[in-house]
């Protein structure tokens, strides 16, 4: 994991176990097992909003703890879904700009995804042959997809066996970099295939005009969360 400026990671006095609405016990246990007790400012602000079904546009510096700020509510929302999903029913998607970042998110998320024993996740990034990914998805299905826009878009184009109609939550991480790297078209195309009634979280380290525009196109009445360095 990339370590970053400790000043950006100042903790609040708010415990994860004190947040409202309350986080489920298995997720608190996974946080505790990983050594996380107190929220960073961006986590304290964002988790309750997403858990209350608000869209969020989050602008907070690198190292401020954005990964858990979306993984915790992502898992909480999926845990609330009543029946175990069908094998090819995709309930949640996390998009990030690079293979390394997607792998890192996938790795950090594993203990939290594991609190849902009937839910299967898959990492979809460049460097793996698309045919291998497609075959695996056809054979095994997946309920959570984590990956890069290029690969996710390719998979959605090629595979109509995946069912996105009951997708609950979409996360766009490092939105500023996603746009800098020229992924606007793939992201717009991915979003156009997802149900409108979903939660969306957009996370960014800088607020640019392009991020604003993506936020207007992909989010519904978003609550803006801004955490300045050292806050
Ligand atoms: P960002 O995505 O905002 O750049 P990360 O989510 O990668 O930040 O987190 C940066 C570092 O802070 C990671 O090493 C992570 O383990 C650590 N971290 C995140 N949340 C907490 C927390 N609540 N308590 C202690 N450390 C944390
Ligand atoms: Mg990050």
Automatic annotation (TrEMBL):
Origin: domain of life: Eukaryota
Every Helicase ATP-binding domain range: 47-225
Function: RNA helicase.
Family: Belongs to the DEAD box helicase family. DDX55/SPB4 subfamily.
Domain comment, as recorded: The Q motif is unique to and characteristic of the DEAD box family of RNA helicases and controls ATP binding and hydrolysis.
Protein name: ATP-dependent RNA helicase
Source organism of this protein record: Elaeis guineensis var. tenera
